[in-house]
Amino acid sequence: MELKVYRECETEEEAKKTAAFIMNGGQGMARTAICRGRTVYLNDYKALTEALIKAKEAAHAAGVGVYDGGTCNFDNPAMVFDRIERAEAERAIKDAGLRSFEWDFASSKEQVALVISGMTAGQGDQRTTMAEAFKDSMQAQGYKCGMYYQMD
């Protein structure tokens, strides 16, 4: 889910002041503001937490009755949060009753993903089915979500 652009500012300093104003509850805004250059984005932490909970429920529903054969694995969904502060993403994941760890899948700091776990059961096909259902739910809700596949 791309964050909504709140304002394009004339200078980076103006963008920082605008973001600070929002963060301090300016105009009754209950959101987190993120400043990237001269652009101020709004981050709806509550919406991300609710999306994660909904995806976790979809994963549990998808896992019912799936035979847990196949290769033992550590398959989990992975998300790149490019317009949200990492600490906020980690807090939303934790508040949704999930866990995460960092996956550095490229040589750039901008290409770090959080692998999300805690929504799966089983160790083979059931785990993969549940992880993919979580990913599909997040994508359907407009978030960038892929998969981390690892055989044991």
Category by helix and strand content: alpha+beta
Based on CA atoms alone, the radius of gyration comes out at 18 Å
- Please provide the ordered H/E string of secondary-structure elements: EHEEHEHEEHE
What's the overall geometry?
elongated
Helix content: 25-40%
| Spatial ordering of strands, largest sheet | 5-6-4-7
As a percent range, the share of strand residues is 15-25%
**Low-pLDDT ranges:** none
Counting DSSP H or I runs of 4 or more residues, the number of helices is: 4
Span from first to last CA?
Answer: 32 Å
Mean pLDDT: 84
Number of strands: 7
> Major sheet, described briefly?
4 strands, antiparallel
What does this structure look like?
Helix content is 38%, strand content 22%. It has 4 helices and 7 strands; from the N terminus they run E-H-E-E-H-E-H-E-E-H-E. It has helices spanning 12-23, 45-63, 86-95, 125-140; strands spanning 4-8, 32-36, 39-43, 76-79, 99-104, 112-117, 146-148. The strands form 2 sheets. Strands 5-6-4-7 form a 4-stranded antiparallel beta sheet. The chain has a 3-stranded antiparallel beta sheet with strand order 1-3-2, covered by helices on one side. The two termini are 32 Å apart. The model has no long low-confidence stretch (mean pLDDT 84).
Can you summarize this structure?
This protein is 38% helix and 22% strand. The protein is α+β, with helices and mostly antiparallel strands. Strand 5 and strand 6 (112-117) form a beta hairpin.
Q: Which key terms come to mind for this protein?
A:
152 residues; alpha+beta; 4-stranded antiparallel sheet; 3-stranded antiparallel sheet; 38% helix
